[in-house]
Write a structure and sequence with these properties.
mainly beta; 343 residues; 4-stranded mixed beta sheet; binds calcium ion; repeat; Immunoglobulin-like; 27 strands; Cadherin_CS; rod-shaped; cell adhesion
């Protein structure tokens, strides 16, 4: 009679189990007597097979390391043969599955990412997607993404599952124009493994700041009867928080006596073109605007004509509101001067 196998035809073994470990004991029974009941076991040679079977004891051992990521299933064809003449034999195909161990870390590819975002980007805008893969199975290979450094304010968010980085808050180039994020990918195995990548995000400037006259209004004292003309009498300056070219400001006189005063478009320097006569007129009001190609700021410049011979020096300094530091007489703002228009 042929030997009959009494062992199951499937088994599971952990990957990375040490070489020489016994996976299972293959056993066949033979109801014959004596010599005819001695059983010899053999394993059909298969390329890449990492197992050996003891011919007498039927112990199935690992002879080379198992790597589930390399191969997860083996079909082992085992033969049990008695020593009868002629011998009787029986074969059994054992399905051997290699169980996963969390022996691979997630790997970012690439490890460095970069993108640019305009500062007026909408919240939720997708910036880029990072990607890491993990060769392990199920939870051992499931990757979750987090931003671990470089963004304390949480201006950006990352989708834990997809690795998509999005704008999470209103950005502002003038507040921060560059981010260097550290992104981590970790698997979901019991003993967590992880990798990290860097994400550079550049914020692009847009023209979202209007020029602002910080010193407003300007009060300028000018001597009458000046001889050397044209002569600079004051410089108005508007500040624009944007970066070039969005902070380039052009100045022009919008209202006022343009035959008497001019402003340099780029420097903001105001020049007197013709001699003043205090007896004819003792005060001028100019409205100067600063433009950054999109938006406009307005400032009032009050020119007070000083009498020649009163010993007061020509003063071209900027005067901020009531902080006069360049004239000796008290100056009363006229009721008809409305500085609220200086925006
Ligand atoms: Ca893993
Ligand atoms: Ca594995
Ligand atoms: Ca601007
Ligand atoms: Ca800007």
């Amino acid at each position: 009679m042929a030997p009959e196998f009494v062992t199951p035809n499937e088994t599971v073994v952990e990957e990375n189990t040490p070489v020489n470990t016994v996976v299972m004991a293959v056993k066949a029974g033979d109801r014959d007597e004596g010599r005819n009941s001695y059983i010899e076991y053999s394993l059909a040679p298969v390329p890449g097979n990492r197992f050996a079977l003891g011919p007498v004891d039927g112990l199935l051992r690992i002879v080379a390391p198992l790597d589930r990521e390399d191969r997860a299933n083996y079909s082992l064809v085992v033969t049990a043969r008695d020593r009868g003449n002629p011998p009787n034999a029986h074969t059994l195909t054992i399905s051997l599955r290699v169980a996963d161990e969390n022996d691979n870390s997630p790997i970012f590819d690439p490890k460095q990412y970069s993108a640019s975002v305009p500062e007026n980007a909408s919240i939720g805008l997708s910036v880029l997607q990072v990607s890491a893969t993990d060769a392990d199975d199920s939870l051992n290979g499931r990757v979750r993404y987090t931003i671990v450094a470089g963004d304390k304010n949480r201006d950006f968010s990352i989708s834990e599952d997809t690795g998509i980085i999005r704008v999470a808050k209103n950005l502002n180039y003038e507040r921060r124009n560059h981010y260097l994020l550290t992104v981590q990918a970790e698997d979901s195995g019991a003993d967590v493994r992880y990798d990290s990548a860097t994400v550079t995000i550049s914020i692009m400037d847009i023209n979202d700041n209007a020029p602002v006259f910080l010193d407003s209004p300007y009060l300028v004292y000018v001597m009458e009867n000046m001889a050397a003309l044209p002569a600079p009498i004051a410089t108005v300056t508007a500040f624009d928080a944007d970066n070039p070219p969005y902070n380039r400001v052009n100045y022009l006189v919008k209202e006022g006596d343009k035959s008497m005063f001019s402003v340099n478009a780029t420097s903001g320097q105001i020049s007197l073109l013709r001699a003043l006569d205090r007896e004819e007129r003792d005060q001028y009001t100019l409205t100067v605007v600063a433009m950054d190609t999109v938006v406009v700021a307005v400032v009032m410049v009050v020119v007070v004509v000083s009498a020649a011979g009163e010993g007061q020096a020509r003063c071209a300094a900027r005067l901020v509101r009531h902080r006069h530091h360049c004239h000796h007489r008290p100056f009363a703002w006229g009721e008809n001067l409305d500085f609220k228009t200086a925006i």
